[in-house]
Design a protein that fits this description.
Blueprint: E1 2-7, E2 10-13, E3 18-26, E4 31-39, E5 46-51, E6 57-59, E7 67-72, E8 77-82, E9 91-99, E10 102-105, E11 109-114
Parallel strand pairs: 2-11
Antiparallel strand pairs: 1-3, 3-8, 4-5, 4-9, 5-6, 7-8, 9-10, 9-11
Length: 115
């Protein structure tokens, strides 16, 4: 079992920045890829960014050049640095960990970007 706890969300004005944190605990040795997803009201959950155990990253086109995903394996933590935020980035952001054939999700953290 892997437990994920997100933090760092909040209210920010457009073009501002936020940094999200996701701390993993439990069977962290089994974690491969980690990632951030988001879900806006009335919309499906969508991929924001992923990072492999080796550090390879993947981003949604909508956030490329603005968001940076990183991880600290020693601290079992993944980060999402969000810059140049837009109102359309408003959503609940979820952390995901892939461990073997299992997917684990955090409880989510709200990000609200005002215009």
């Amino acid at each position: 079992q892997v437990q994920l706890v997100e933090s760092g969300g909040g209210l920010v004005q457009a073009v501002g920045s936020l940094r999200l944190f996701c701390a993993a605990s439990g069977s962290t040795f089994s974690i491969n890829a980690m990632g951030w997803y988001r879900q806006a009201p009335g919309k499906q959950r969508e991929l924001v960014a992923t990072i492999s155990s080796g550090g390879s990253t993947n981003y949604a086109d909508s956030v490329k050049g603005r968001f940076i995903i990183s991880r600290d394996n020693a601290r079992n933590t993944v980060y999402l640095q969000m810059n140049s935020l837009k109102p359309e980035d408003t959503a609940v952001y979820y952390c995901k960990a892939v461990a073997g054939r299992y997917n684990y999700w955090g409880q989510g953290t709200q990000v609200t970007v005002s215009s």
